[in-house]
Amino acid sequence: MRTASLQEGVHRTVLPSGLRIVTEAIPTTRSASLGIWVGIGSRDERPSLHGASHFLEHLLFKGTHKRSALDISAEIEAVGGETNAFTTKEYTCYYARVLDADLPLAVDVLVDAVADSILEPADVETERGVILEEIAMHEDEPGDEVHDVFAEVIFGDHPLGRLISGTPESITPMTRDQINRFYRKHYTAPEILVAAAGNLDHATVVKLVRKALAGSPLDTGPAAPAATRRSDRRVRSGKPRTAVVHRDTEQAHIVLGGPGLGRHDDRRFALGVLNNVLGGGMSSRLFQEIREKRGLAYSVYSYASQHADAGLVGVYAGCAPAKAAEVLDLIRVELDRVAEKGITLEELSRGKGMVKGAYVLGLEDTGSRMSRLAKSELLHGDLMTVDELLTRVDAVTVDEVNAIAAELFGGERSLAVVGPFGEDDFPA
Questions:
Q1: Could you give the number of structural domains in the chain?
Q2: Residue 274: CATH number of its domain
Q3: Where are the strands (E) in 109-189, listed by range?
Q4: pLDDT per residue as tens digits for the range 130-174
């Protein structure tokens, strides 16, 4: 077992099994947030198992050899805590937030659920129905659906372009044995990270985790932690194209953009500044032009999504269908302008301030501090201090931002639309 101090109040222990434990002590709080992070997400699924990660996320709260589904929820709620989970394309997280005195309970319950779930066949059938309803509900939220359509436009048939939840065609035939094999193959100690932040002691957390793991399927022999995710050479963004999904909606939902940067690209700091200038707030170019000056859309913003080896950038707008063409033209004008002429020094300063403020203000609770620890360890392989990150943002130059703008927005763009349209309404 190896323990190291990463920063003041932050410690990291690697158990002999390869499972990692990272904590941050925040003595001024009376709460603690705990997360069990697994470095497996929807991009790790074969086509026949599309949606298995999300399916499994549902099932791990349905019962273990020690606890029923009711026990899992009741034990945490009885102390006023909360627990939940989420699945992404590259990792899955199970988390709880409790009073500091109840952290031992949270560790025992969450570790038990993640390490030793039974996956009863009856529970598989129940959750299959829940997930199919969730997929149907998602299709009733066109403002969310359009982002999934856009990801498919950019990444095509690569797993990064697929829905995290799976589809009715993939979820319906998936068997309990398939899900269980996926569980035991991928939920191994080297892939798992336990992160906690709050009023805690690192050595105590390590003892609690080791006790909870004893005798479980994760209590395994010596191994090294899994390395950070490597690049997948299959990730290719195809030629720019347009995808239109017909829905009888009152609003048109539009995303225009293209491939972006991976999260290990040092230019991500310049992209963060650019994103804020372009569409990151009420003072941004897109908000001012489309909403404030013309009142054409209630919601308009730009965003960047980053994965280990790929990313995308896009501009979203929700507007009346009759105004969709005008809104698209205005978005194109702004993207052309920033690609050709870049941003000003005043915008650079404001964009930096927005990035720094959002980051620091986002660390005001134990949950966000816990997530910061986990993502740094799991996705980046190191933990940047707050001061180091602010320094990196301060070092961004206007030339760097303008170069990124020209590269990402200077060429042809892809378009995703969900609304009362057909393909012919948006010619290439």
A1: 2
A2: 3.30.830.10
A3: none
A4: 999 999 998 889 999 999 999 999 999 899 999 999 999 999 999
* Res 50: pLDDT: 97
- Same-domain pairing of 175 and 272: no
Query: How far, rounded to the nearest angstrom, does the alpha carbon of residue 101 sit from its chain's CA centroid?
Result: 29
Enter the DSSP assignment of 160: G
Check: pTM over 0.85? Answer yes or no. Answer: yes
Choose the catalytic residue: 24, 45, 57, 75. 57
CA 80 to chain centre: 26
pLDDT digits (tens, 9 = 90+) for 222-277: 999 999 987 776 677 668 899 999 999 999 999 999 999 999 999 999 999 999 99
Q: Single out the residue of 50, 46, 48, 38 nearest to residue 184, CA to CA.
A: 38
Residues 260 and 312: their CA atoms lie apart, in Å, by 4
For residue 177, the SS3 value is helix
* Helix (H), strand (E) at residue 329: helix 324-341
What DSSP element (H or E) covers 275?
Answer: helix 268-279
- Of the candidates 19, 1, 21, which has an alpha carbon nearest to the alpha carbon of residue 11? 21
Q: Is 384 exposed, middle or buried (0-12, 13-18, 19+ CB in 10 A)?
A: middle
Q: Name 123's Cβ contacts closer than 8 Å, sequence gap at least 6.
A: 59, 62, 63, 69
CB 317 within 8 A of CB 297: yes
Cα-based distances in Å from 200 to 9, 12, 32, 100? 10, 14, 7, 7
Q: Is residue 218 part of a domain?
A: no
Q: Is 412 a catalytic residue?
A: no
HSE at residue 220, side-chain half, CA atoms within 13 A, is: 17
Q: Are 235 and 160 in contact (CB under 8 A)?
A: yes
Domain match, 52 and 140 both: yes
Phi and psi dihedrals of 394, rounded to 5?
Answer: -60, -30
Amino acid at 254: I
Residue 364 burial by CB count (10 A; 0-12/13-18/19+): exposed, middle or buried? exposed
User: Taking Cα atoms as reference points, which of 357, 303, 296 lies closest to residue 328?
Assistant: 296
Give me the domain span that covers residue 190.
2-213
CB-based contacts of 245: which residues, under 8 Å, 6+ apart? 142, 145, 146, 149, 416, 417, 418
